[in-house]
Every structure is written in structure tokens, then in C-alpha cells.
Write a structure and sequence with these properties.
heterodimer, A: 87 residues, mainly alpha, 2 helices, rod-shaped, B: 265 residues, alpha+beta, PH-domain like, 3 domains, three-stranded antiparallel beta sheet, 7 helices, 22% strand
Chain lengths: 87, 265
């Protein structure tokens, strides 16, 4: 009985260790993706600013369209980042 | 008909036309008007090759000619809105930051879309690579929410890469006006270059088509050598390079004519 109890405790601690390791792993993956998402968000803002500056340098009939595409791209980046936060 | 590539012939023809006009006017009114040109030691009054022509004191008002009047290339082109075209002659919708009043934009050039084939292949391989990894089951041990997050993030990166490549193509352009040539280079989103050269300072223009795709799609390189601070401007991967060179030569001749006729703005 005592031996069984000891064996059970060893197996259970191993299983919980495995579960603990798994959750640490997924937590790190999630953290990494949130950080990458944040970096991408900054990149999307830089892209939008670049579009604004280039539209001031050379103004054409598609300036508004391209700026709108930049805003949509930034919006998508924000949505994906928010999803990564809550997943 | 003057040989437009021979500047001496052009100067000779312009002088001859001025003398003819003055001579006819003087003859019809039986006397010189204002200060007609004095021809010295010339048997034929219309022969200016050996005669010394004294320029009139009349000043010619500065009038700028429209590009269709002096350019055979632009006469065959209809105005095209810049939008996403690689070759946009006489764009009615474009202005740029250092443009002076009355400066006409004659041509806006971008790289031919075929030069973006490499980027298109990269995007396709990014999509197919991700699909293949999913089929193999690489992400199967992740929870469903993680798999969705990874997929969304990956496709966002693909969209971002293609959007960045598109913007780089869109803003990397060459503008030819009747006064200058402007080269806008976008190396990255943190590095841009804007170089301009006056038409007056251009010394040599060369065009070359190269490669299989270049020959099929009429894509090539135009090299402009100048006497200014920037010795060389290079337009790489542009459509119709021969037409661009002809246009630049016509602009150079028009600048020469403007100086001779006193139409300098």
C-alpha cells in the first residue's frame, strides 16, 4: 500500500510537471507572438507615415486610395494583435 | 527641314529664318524697320553663312511652347492619369513638392510591373509554404486558438510584405518635366533619395534593353549623364527606354532653341 502510494505520488508529480512544462511552453509562445504583434503594429504605423510623406512629395490621384489601404492594413494589424492578447 | 539632332544646323536655320522675315518686311515697306539686321559682304541677302548678322534690339517675349509642338514622341501620346501606370505621359493629375509654376510634367515613369515578378514569387511561396506546413501537421499539438492566432499572424505578415513591396514600386518613380529630370529612389521606408537634374546640364543619354523579359516587354535602362553635382541618373527597368531617350533629346533641343530665341523663362 505504502509502495503503491509512493509510486502514485511519483507518477502524479511527473504528470503535473509535464503539464506545468506544457503550459509554460504555450505561455512563452503566446508572449512571443504578442511581442511580435506589437513590433508589427509599430511597422504598420511607420508604413502609414511613409505613405503620408510620399504623398506630400508626389501627389497623384491615387494618394487617397493608398492612404486608405495603409489605414486598413493598420486596422488589420490591431485586430490580429488584440486576438493574440485574448487567445 | 533641319536635322534636329544637329545643333549647328538648327542655329543656322533659326538665324536664316529671322533674316528672311526681316528682309521681306523691310522690302515691303521700302525701308528698314527699327534696327534691321545689317548684312556685310554677302552677295545673297539670305546667305548668312559668311555674313555677320547683327541681332535686332527687339526682345522676344518669353513664351513657353507646349510639349506637343516640339516633341514627336509626345504628339503620339494621349494624356494618361498617373494612377498605377508604369508609363504615364502628360499626366493631368500629378504634382510634386518642388514644382515651380508653369513647369509641365511631361512623363512619369515607374519600373515595369514585370520587374516585380520576384516579389510575386516570394509571396506565393510564403502562402504555399504555410499551407504545406499545415498539411504536414506541424501545428497539430497546438490548441485550436493558437493555430488560429498563428495563421492570422502569418497571413498578416504576407499582406504586410506584399503591401510594402507594392509601395516601394509605386513611389520609386522618375519624373520628366520640361525643365528637369527627377529621380525618386525608395530604398526602404527609412531611406529615400530625391535627385534632380536640369535639362540644360544633360550631356548624354543612353538606353539599353537587356534580357529575355526586357526584349519581350520592351523594358530597359536609361542612363542620363549630367554636368551637375550628380554625374549620372539611372532609370532602371522602365518601359519604352528608346522613346524616353528620344523625348529627352527633344527636350534638350527645345532648351537650346529657347536660349537662342530668347524664350528663357
Amino acid at each position: 500500500m505504502q509502495l503503491l502510494a509512493i509510486t502514485n505520488s511519483i507518477v502524479n508529480s511527473g504528470a503535473s510537471n509535464l503539464l506545468f512544462t506544457n503550459s509554460i511552453f504555450f505561455y512563452l509562445i503566446k508572449l512571443g507572438m504578442i511581442i511580435l504583434g506589437l513590433i508589427y503594429l509599430i511597422y504598420a504605423v511607420i508604413l502609414l507615415r511613409h505613405i503620408q510623406m510620399m504623398n506630400e512629395t508626389v501627389k497623384t490621384s491615387v494618394a487617397g486610395t493608398v492612404f486608405f489601404m495603409g489605414v486598413v492594413h493598420l486596422g488589420l494589424a490591431v485586430l490580429v494583435w488584440l486576438y493574440l492578447l485574448v487567445m | 527641314m533641319p536635322d534636329i539632332f544637329n545643333r549647328d544646323s538648327l542655329k543656322h536655320t533659326v538665324k536664316k529664318e529671322k533674316v528672311v522675315k526681316k528682309h521681306r518686311l523691310a522690302k515691303s515697306k521700302q525701308g528698314p524697320i527699327h534696327s534691321a539686321p545689317q548684312l556685310q559682304s554677302a552677295t545673297d541677302p539670305l546667305d548668312v553663312s559668311s555674313a555677320e548678322v547683327v541681332n535686332t534690339s527687339q526682345t522676344i517675349k518669353a513664351t513657353k511652347r507646349h510639349v506637343d509642338e516640339y516633341s514627336s514622341v509626345m504628339r503620339q501620346e494621349r494624356p494618361v492619369k498617373t494612377k498605377f501606370h508604369a508609363y504615364a505621359p502628360k499626366p493631368p493629375d500629378a504634382t510634386f513638392v518642388s514644382q515651380v509654376p508653369k513647369e509641365q510634367i511631361i512623363l512619369i515613369l515607374r519600373q515595369h510591373p514585370i520587374t516585380q515578378l520576384k516579389n510575386v514569387l516570394i509571396v506565393i511561396s510564403m502562402i504555399l509554404g504555410f499551407v504545406f506546413i499545415n498539411l504536414v501537421g506541424f501545428f497539430d499539438f497546438f490548441p485550436a486558438s493558437y493555430r488560429t492566432g498563428i495563421t492570422l499572424f502569418w497571413f498578416l505578415v504576407v499582406i504586410g510584405y506584399s503591401f510594402a513591396a507594392f509601395l516601394k514600386w509605386l513611389y520609386n518613380m522618375y519624373i520628366i518635366t520640361d525643365e528637369r529630370i527627377i529621380d525618386i529612389d525608395v530604398f526602404s521606408f527609412l531611406k529615400r533619395n530625391l535627385t534632380s537634374a536640369k535639362i540644360d546640364n544633360i550631356e548624354d543619354v543612353t538606353a539599353a534593353n537587356y534580357g529575355l523579359l526586357g526584349s519581350i516587354f520592351d523594358v530597359g535602362i536609361v542612363v542620363v549623364q549630367t554636368a551637375g553635382a550628380t554625374p549620372m541618373l539611372e532609370f532602371g527597368g522602365v518601359p519604352h527606354p528608346a522613346r524616353v531617350v528620344t523625348l529627352i533629346n527633344e527636350l534638350i533641343l527645345e532648351e537650346e532653341r529657347e536660349k537662342i530665341e530668347g524664350r528663357v523663362m
